[in-house]
Amino acid sequence: MNTQPGNNDNNELIGEEATLLIVDDDGPFLRRIGRAMESRGFTVELAESVAAGRAVIKSDPPKYAVVDLRLSDGNGLELIEEIRAAREDTRIVMLTGYGNIATAVNAVKLGAIDYLAKPADADDVFAALTRKPGEKVEPPENPMSADRVRWEHIQRVYEMCDRNVSETARRLNMHRRTLQRILAKRAPR
After folding, report:
1. 105-136 pLDDT tens trace
2. Pairing of β 64-68 and β 43-47
3. Three-state DSSP state, 108
4. Which residues contact 177 (CB under 8 A, 6 or more apart)?
5. Residue 69: which of 101, 35, 28, 39 has the closest Cα?
6. How many helices, marked H, and strands, marked E, lie in the chain?
7. Looking at the DSSP assignment, which residues form a beta bridge with residue 95?
8. Are 56 and 47 in contact (CB under 8 A)?
9. What contacts 84, CB < 8 A, 6 or more positions away?
10. 13: CB partners within 8 A, 6+ apart
């Protein structure tokens, strides 16, 4: 899916080098977001796995990248590190259907400029990729519920314990099986 940039209005926002790597194991979403980013002026390279993403990074490190957190063959956080090692100026956005604050913080520490929860649309992705440093993001219209705040706290402690369920359960003073059930569920709204 390699095409040349076309939209002149967007070319000012993304610059001359508009190479974009999108890594996601959800094929239909990957192709849809790829087409949408091409229509906004990017030269898009698609990858459905960590291995395919690595191959693109090694052959031609992109100026922009959108990486899913959970991939069929690994973790998107690994790719952020590899992109940063290959090219320091790449603007990386992390995407995930399993959004939590701890992972977002980890992604930003590794070099991502933003973190978007799925289902993110093409406008959200484009805005995140082209946002100027220091530019503020609009506050959410619907803040987190108390259940979501609790879930976020559990995820943060889980990440701090290097994803060790037993240690996380001990620190949260929670039964290990209860914690496993919580971790297996999707985030509350």
Report:
1. 888 888 888 888 776 788 889 988 988 877 76
2. unpaired
3. helix
4. none
5. 101
6. 9, 7
7. 68, 116
8. yes
9. 90, 92, 110, 111
10. 130
Task: Write out pLDDT tens, residues 158-187.
Answer: 888 888 999 999 999 999 999 999 988 877
Q: Are 113 and 91 in contact (CB under 8 A)?
A: yes
Q: How far apart are CA 67 and CA 77, in angstroms?
A: 8
Q: Looking at this protein, which amino acid is placed at residue 140?
A: P
Domains of the chain: 8-130 (3.40.50.2300), 146-184 (1.10.10.60)
Whether residue 139 has a cis bond before it, omega within 30° of 0: no
Measured distance between the N- and C-terminal CA atoms of the chain, rounded to whole angstroms: 35
Ranking 18-27, 58-67, 151-160 by mean pLDDT, the lowest is 151-160
CB 96 within 8 A of CB 71: no
Q: How many residues does the chain have?
A: 189
Q: Rounded to an integer, what distance in angstroms lies between the CA atom of residue 175 and that of residue 79? A: 34
Distance in angstroms (rounded) separating the CA atoms of residues 73 and 24: 11
| Tokens found for residue 56 | 């693109």
Residue 187 and residue 147: Cα distance in Å, rounded?
9
